[in-house]
Amino acid sequence: DYRPADLRYLARWFCVEEETSALFVPREGPTTLLTDVSWDIDRARREAFADQMRFTQDFGTELAALISETHGERARVGIAGYQIFPTPVYLTLLRQLGAATFTDASELTAELRMVKSPAELDLMRTASRISDEAMAAGIARIGQGTTEIEVAAGRAQRLEIVGRAHSRQAGRRQRAHDCIVVGEQAREHRSLRRAR
User: 3-class DSSP state for residue 1?
Assistant: First the structure.
């Protein structure tokens, strides 16, 4: 979970505690979410947007196998979060896929996140409404003798109440991870076009 925004956006997934995860997105075929915590696979199967979930202690070997199976050893591999990608994983990929080309795909995933779907716009409007209600509750507490902490507590309390009500009503939670995008046409992959 070195670049959580990409994983959260593409796979609706996030790491807990000391977990590390990666998302493999081939040009065509199933997406694969990798995690190094075996007890979190069940949560991944329930909550993440990925076609397959796998437990691994060796991200480099697992990713190299996925890349080789889907695109061969001469694949063009884009890595989102390239500047902070774990060196041991990168070195394993180089060793096992010596003929592959590795590039920084961080701008690709950033561009994907910039264009909002109707579902994302609805969520942003809801978040704005919830924030407005919370601020109004804080402002309503302002008065002579009221401390800054009391005003903030009023805002926080309203934010929690309204936010929880929306979460229960919507029946969803936000999730995410670090992302490996394979292929020049990754933005055309069917999983990237799903409603968020």
Answer: coil
Interatomic CA distance for residues 115 and 171, integer angstroms: 24
Phi/psi at 78 (5° precision): -100, 135
DSSP-derived secondary structure for 5-49: HHHHHHHS----TT--EEEEE-SSS--EEEES-GGGHHHHHHH--
Pairing of strands 52-55, 32-35: parallel
Dihedral angle sign, alpha carbons of residues 43, 3, 186, 58: negative
Contact 21, 10 (CB under 8 A): no
What pTM was computed for the model? Answer: 0.67
In whole angstroms, how far apart are CA 75 and each of 6, 34, 62, 194?
21, 20, 15, 25
CA dihedral 40, 78, 100, 28 (to 10 degrees): 70
pLDDT tens digits for range 39-82: 888 888 888 999 999 999 999 999 999 999 999 888 999 999 88
CB atoms within 10 A of CB 95: 11
Give dist(CA 51, CA 136) in Å, integer.
42
One DSSP character per residue, 78-115 reads EETTGGGS-HHHHHHHHHH-TT-EEEE-HHHHHHHHHS
Query: Which pLDDT score, from 0 to 100, does residue 73 have?
Result: 81
Closest CA relative to residue 82, chosen from 51, 104, 113, 59: 104
